[in-house]
Amino acid sequence: MPSDETHWLLVHGAFHAGWCWDRLLPHLTERGIEASMVDLPFTSQADDWRTVEEAIDRLAQAGRRVVVVGHSHGGSVISGAGYRADHLVYLTAWMTAPDDEFDLGGAPGMSAIVVDGDTASIDPSQAAAAFYHRCDPADGEWATGRLRPMPIATLRADGEPEPAWRTVASTYIVCDDDQIITPAAQEQMAGHATAVRHIDSDHSPFLACPAELASHLADIVGS
């Protein structure tokens, strides 16, 4: 999969937006990886899927091979939208099927999620411990100030179609010090993937260790 024929589409997770990849992009560029990111609207699950599907279609129509990276909740999104991608990368992400019986609970960082009626948000005082505890404190503060609330409905997988990873090759990147999705849960989900990698990071390797993450992604491009 030569890098000059491939475009990487980066799909963020819950509470975040495309800005979360800003520290990673220069490292991808240094390695000759062409990449762009989407901003999920968080208006409905269907709208999130459609946003990614349309981005994949635009790139494919331009003659690019498309590798889609889904981080955290973004894994659920690419599972519902990535059927026309050439490869799917699950970065400490939800990679599940309706019939799974995994134990995915117990992560300490989940206590940072605050539910108010139909909306979920992140308690700013707990954001660093949940998402960014291996990051430079300044980066963690920068990211915390950009987190956004979202409807709870967009976090659920009700009506999820057959996941794209059933037919599209995939790589799962386990983050070994994640406080939001436990490494044990990641390992269970990674059993669905074609290949598995590990990175010594918290939930946000695009901030904690962007150069190392870029190296992993470059290896996938060249594989």
Entry keywords:
globular; single chain; six-stranded parallel beta sheet; 223 residues; 9 strands; alpha/beta; three-stranded antiparallel beta sheet; 8 helices
Walk me through this protein's architecture.
The protein has 223 residues and is α/β, with parallel strands linked by helices. It has a single domain (3-98, 155-222), classed as Rossmann fold (3-Layer(aba) Sandwich). Helices cover 32% and strands 19% of the residues. It contains eight helices and nine strands. It has helices at residues 25-30, 45-61, 74-81, 124-131, 137-144, 183-190, 205-208, 210-222, and strands at 6-11, 34-37, 65-71, 87-91, 113-116, 119-122, 150-151, 170-175, 195-199. It has a six-stranded parallel sheet with strand order 2-1-3-4-8-9, sandwiched between helices. Helix 2 (45-61) crosses helix 3. The longest helix is centred in the first third of the chain and has 17 residues, at 45-61. The chain is globular and about 45 Å long. The model has no long low-confidence stretch (mean pLDDT 93).
